[in-house]
Amino acid sequence: MALGPTQRLKDGIAAVETMTRFALAVLALASGVYTYLGVRSILDGSPTGVFFAAIIYSVSVSVGIYAFWSYMARFYPHITSRTGKTAMLFVMAAGAAMILAMSSWLNAAALAGSAAVEQHLSETVEGYSADLDRAHQNVLAVQSLLPDIQRASERFTQLAAVERQSGSLTGTTGSGSVVQLLAQMSGQMKSLEANINGSREQVAELFEQGQKRLETMRSLISAPGRIEPRADQFSTEAVALTGVISSLSQTSIAPSIRRAADDLSLGFIAPVADGSDANLINRQDQVMTTVKASVAAQSKALAKAADEILARPPVTERRFVPLSSAEAVLHYAQDFIPAWAGAISIDLLPGVMVFILAVAHASIRRQEEKLPYAERITAAELMRAVEIQRALSASGVDLEAAVAKAEKTAEEDGEPAKDGESAEEPNNITNLDPRSRGRDRLHDDR
């Protein structure tokens, strides 16, 4: 029967009407629950105030979602004009955007808020770890100068000892002016060496403290339980670690090495030659001039190495910014696409049901348009038409004369019959007069 598919679609729509309402209610309730959890994570105040504020907001969201999609399911499938459909699609898009703004991101915060906060803490730890390592490397760079300083100190010490014992520099043994100058330079180098060795213990202690802070912060990230108290303790550890990194950067003695290098050359004071004869004094002056040139070269090399260390970019102070679960979900949205997809699907899944109903109703309309009017008329409409015909007949109205007059008027006006219309059924209206239908059958037999 031609009416079969249409009737089955109508029966199917009637059968799922209750299920549609139930599904809308469940989805709206689920969205409200997750919205409540998301709202509680961003509100501050007394527990009672936060509870009631979150309840009111989540209930409003649930009612709004249910009402919006109920309206769309009720009206959109029955709109046939292109303008009306376009307007309703615009309204649907605007409503979906509002639902995303007021609910979906809070649903995502409830679904993946804790994981997003943990990721924020994890990335923060990695940043602090890199800062600590860089500060430690900058401080240890000074240690690379220690071998050069030790070699220079040993060289001056050995020259002083050789001059004292054999007089290889001036040709005269003993502790004269040259020996005193060489001992003076060796003492300055040993002083620099002692400063570098002295800072090594402090640097190691600060670096160990920083490592312990980082270990505590990592354990807080992976610890079980609610994220809020762990994030608060993490913030305390971050502040302490920032202080350790600042102290580590300030322990660098590179500036002191740079000043000491300048003092070696600029503050060079050669003692007066104390030789017993003019020839010895001349040799002592020559040796002290050579020592001065060696000290100047050593000072230049040390200053250059210190400048290279000082030219390294300093470790900027990192400020830990705590994020709520809702803020973290927005900040790391690209890392939690499944959670966002689930949160959005809860709110926008009713839109799929609306389009299903729209397609079903459109199919029913297309199938009914292909049927003649006599097959589209319902029993109630047939009974109503019979009652009207009886009432007109009782009042003395000649239906056949009225139909004939209408046909004659149409022919005089030159209006062609519409497709599917006949003289017996003008305007595709079924003639319910039994006598007329008898004549129709006789005409068909002929």
Kindly state the number of beta strands: 0
How far the N terminus sits from the C terminus, by CA atoms, comes to 28 Å
Q: What level of helicity do the residues show?
A: over 70%
> What is the mean predicted local confidence, pLDDT?
78
Using the CA coordinates, give the radius of gyration: 48 Å
Backbone structural class:
mainly alpha
Q: How much of the polypeptide forms β-strand, as a percent range?
A: under 5%
Q: What sort of overall outline do the alpha carbons produce when their principal axes are compared?
A: rod-shaped
Q: Are there runs of 5+ residues with pLDDT below 50, and where? A: 415-446
Largest sheet: none
Number of helices: 15
| Total number of domains | 3
- Sketch the topology as an H/E string, one letter per element: HHHHHHHHHHHHHHH
Which short descriptors sum up this protein?
446 residues, mainly alpha, 3 domains, 15 helices, rod-shaped, disordered C terminus
